UniProtKB/TrEMBL annotation:
Gene3D superfamilies: 2.20.25.10, SH3 Domains. Pfam families: YjdM, Zn_Ribbon_YjdM. This is Alkylphosphonate utilization protein. Transmembrane segments: none annotated.
Length: 113
């Protein structure tokens, strides 16, 4: 059955498997929902598996060094109004006191309620 599933859109692995309605990649951990026409729609999830959407508020779960600077985004920093983009750093946002940045979804947790 794996020969009918598309390769992983993140790492191009052919070892994709299906759990319920999600396709999963065992090599990079990427999960996505296949479209009806066979194409894939990437689902961006935070560090604990919550689905992220444009406009969500997230909290940074780990101190992150800012590339090319001595600045650090501290754990617990709340970031409002995120925008999802394609690529390795899949969140564009404006971090208070630092400015415009791109983040990886694996280092944030969605704020609920």
């Amino acid at each position: 059955m794996s020969d009918t599933l598309p390769p992983c859109p993140e790492c191009s692995s052919t070892y994709v498997y299906q759990v319920d309605s999600l396709l999963n990649c065992p090599e990079c951990g990427h999960e996505w929902v296949p479209d009806a026409d066979g194409a894939t729609a990437s689902t961006v999830r935070d560090s604990v598996g919550n689905v992220l959407e444009d406009g969500d508020t997230v909290t940074v779960i780990k101190d992150l060094k800012v590339k090319g600077s001595s600045t650090v985004v501290k754990v617990g920093t709340k970031v409002r109004g995120i925008r999802l983009v394609e690529g390795d750093h899949d969140i564009d946002c404006k971090i208070p006191g630092i400015g415009q940045m791109s983040l990886k979804s694996q280092f944030v947790k969605k704020v609920t309620g």
